[in-house]
Amino acid sequence: MNNQKKDVKDYIRTIVDFPHEGIMFRDVTTLFADPRGLRICVDQLLHPFAGERIDKVVGLEARGFIVGGAIAHQLSVGFVPVRKKGKLPGATISEEYALEYGEAIMEIHDDAISAGEKILIVDDLLATGGTAAAGIKLIERLGGDIIGCAFIVDLPELGGRKKIEDLGMDVHTLCEFEGA
User: Is pTM beyond 0.90 here?
Assistant: First the structure.
């Protein structure tokens, strides 16, 4: 039995050529499936924000829902999903953003966040920063005060961290992987 201490990165597997050739997919489902891995992930994502008031956690579709829900539960605060267009049942506001291969639209319920609420944004992966930037803009339009953005994985070569920091956000990541 291997008693060597693992960190978050050790729980994440890489799937080559998914969803298409040339992509190294960083699969966090293996992290979520392991109870110790999930606990380490949640604790480490929360650590930089210890002592700060957080009213709600916003999770970005879709894996951000998993870790965001766990963090909201840990903090005993509400959870708000930011979803792809057409997935939320109530009245929404939307934000369009660029992808490598086109454009997409993210939405949030128009009553999900009250002005002045302290928000922590959570997602699994920071790549180009498009999804996170759209989430930030939606939250700010509702009057939310974003205290930070927490991601499990950063892909630094794709420039997402700089994009989000240029929006004035505090960015916290648990690990990095090279490449796309």
Answer: yes
